[in-house]
Amino acid sequence: MFFKDVIGQTEVKQHLAEMVQLNRLSHALLFLGKQGSGALPLALAFGQFLVCEKVNGKSTSNQQGPSLFGFDEPVEPMNTSPTLTDACGECPACTKAWQMVHPDIHFSYPVISKKSGDKPKSTDFISDWREFIQQSPYGNVYDWLQFIGAENKQGNITAEECNDIIRQLSLKSFESEYKILLMWMPEYLGKEGNKLLKLIEEPPANTLFILVAESEEQILPTILSRTQLVKVPLLENVEVEQALIERNNTPPEQARLVAGIAQGNYHEALQLLQHSEEDWLSLLREWMNVTLKENQLGQVKWVEEAAKLGREKQKQFLRYYNHLLEQCVRLRILGPQNLSLSEPEKDFAARLNKVASVTQQQAIITELDKAAYYVERNANAKILFHALTIKMLHIIKDKVLVSVV
Length: 405
Ligand SMILES: [Zn+2]
Fold this sequence. Notes:
By secondary structure, this protein is of the alpha/beta class. The protein contains 17 helices and 5 strands. The chain has helices at about 10-20, 40-50, 90-100, 125-135, 140-145, 160-170, 195-200, 220-225, 235-250, 250-260, 265-275, 280-290, 295-310, 310-335, 345-355, 360-375, 380-405, and strands spanning about 30-35, 105-110, 180-185, 205-215, 230.
């Protein structure tokens, strides 16, 4: 992976390259970025950058061979690195890193047990891992676990994996100056992660830990305190839009609409496109109707339908509704221009503005955020959507009470 393959994140890339050039690299880095920000591709690109021979000023094409006269003339290192901002892509180290077969870059990620009782390590799934990254560098952990057939099994970074890391890092590096351990989703480390503490605190020479995480709160605090933070922000909408057009051949108008909903999350943008046949607006319209008319039978039917969607689609639907409400606020303030909405959506947003005030819409947004959080954590969908229906009705009815008084 190259830095140029990573969408946006110009400042972070620059910061990383400078850390190398100025020799300010800490031995344990934590790349912290929400899903779809590109923290993993960024870490992969950084790994390649670190081993690239040109970046290290070691490229054989730049070096003079042994002196013909039997003594070594002082050789000026032809170090081209100070200006290099990406791996060269030509040296053997780059080729290996790009194929994810470089012997000094180790990968660690959550895996599942194939049959009960076995104790899986990340390397057991290495060919799947390479294929997954190739196919979906912006994939999330859910995609990955489905990719290896987890279904409902929980992924884990196991104690055996920790032992394997300790073993691998105790070896001398093979080809590169650095030995790198890239761990994706350290959130999946249980208590056994404490086995790694000593290694992170006092690593063997030239060993670099790169942890790539989404959620700071879910990482063992003992590990967190030993790492240097590299924050990877969400992308700008225009970067997502541009990437969709260039990498995914999305028609510009659709790219603009989808980028508006995805809000800096490229993974989400791709998912939305995949499910663009989903008619979220109709589903939402139906929900509002049965809720506001207090049609209880209709509500039960709607909730059953929503419960059948599955976790990923439920999250998408909630996000869609959230986006629409945010656009409602914009519509009030800025008028119908420059909204990330299609015509029927604009029409619906105008209606929503009639039934709910900004404060009420904000209250609904808060509830939707909470719901998305619980969906993520496998809450019972029927109960969740039923409760949400009741809350939404309360929020909107309160306005009626207020306006009557
Ligand atoms: Zn290179």
